[in-house]
Amino acid sequence: MFIDKKQIIDRIHSDNSWWQENSIEIFFKKMSKRPYFDIFYPLVIEKEIKRAVVLMGPRRVGKTVMINHTIQKLIDEGIESNKICYFSIDTPTYSKIPLESLLIYFLEINKLNKNDDLYIFFDEIQYLNNWELHLKSLVDTYHNIKFIVSGSSAAALKLKSIESGAGRFTDFILPPLSFYEYLVLRYENSKEAIFWNENIEKNIDKLNSEFLYFINFGGYPEVSISKIAQENINRYLKNDIIEKVLLKDLPNLYGVQDIQELNVLFNYIAYNTGLEFSLDAIASNSGVAKNTIKKYLQYLEAAFLIHIVHRIDQNSKKFKKANFFKVYLTNTSLRSALFMSANKEDKNFGNIVESAIYAQYYHQRYILKNIYYARWNEGEVDVVILDPIYQKPYFALEIKWSNRFAEDPKQLRKILNFCNKNNIKTLHVTTIDILKEEYFGDILIKFIPAAILALIESSVAFKIQRDTSNLSIDELMKQLNDKI
What is the pTM of this model? Predict the structure, then answer.
């Protein structure tokens, strides 16, 4: 398909309205910034280190909106608007045009020099074959230009960035909304926000209602704040996110032949999120071969749809063979889109709550790979965090949607034995609405409502990512221990 130069230039003008208006489109301007913006923006303006920024994450988490907010802030901070250019690579007009050719068009239009300080954004970059080679060449050639790329095919971006971007790309992962971000978007500039940032204990019923709402609709900005999207969650999430990843992104990237097989496996995992699995059990229940399951699990994790947590024993030792593991959805609203909205009375609601809390740790990627669950013949602990250096446990959490352990701590005896054996001095246990502390022997048990814990973990995750981006691992671990 031949597209003449005038059409290309007209399209570039159309996509960069701020050249005339000195402002992004009102459609993006009226949208709230995700708190992650404050972490992302410093990477954009960092020019001493010659690297491109690769913004990756699942579909519909707000990457294009974040790019537009970034452009507006650059303009507000004095960058001339004609020195900022945005290209959406999925536009048919740009089909198969190399990134450097698009850059040259931009330079010609605005009579700029390649040595000028410029900001170039390439959105939906995965639609260009070998984009990582194009981008690496641009970084090596144009030293005064900051390149920022993003895309919805998270698995593809992650794979290609690792393969070709070493030393040239800085990856930035934008996950689904955390519980903290969800509340910020829902109650920004609202007097009602007092229920969760000042009087949280007195308003636990209100917070629990929001937590249930978050479990069903809270993973994506659009669905979180739009009643229309919530009423059509099957369309907004199942069709636009799940099916595009399972039917298009992963098959194109990994050459998956049996798409229906992958879909069956994901549905099985999504329905049983938070449960312990084995390859034998999944194979038996889904009808998929074990070797194929291993590959599919890797693909789904690379696409940011699931997170796999491995098992340790009662002595906090890892198993040589990972025969058993837990699989969690990275956000529980995917389950609502596939099946039906969760209800507090559902018999498996406890597992869904566990998944929702684990999703908050997904925002703490600096410790995510050190999170395990412990299981042995007599008991289980849902969350155990190991010190990355010494591989010793320093945090234990039991997740329940129940008050029974707070009312009768003796039921925690097996878990307390685990804590004693592993020198863990504090055990955290979630409840529905009881907040208290008490000693059982030498161990302090902190009972905390699940919704409050989700809020604390997600707000701490954001704060630590914002404030500790340059900390060493020892300094980071000290801050985490202080928090605990």
Answer: 0.88
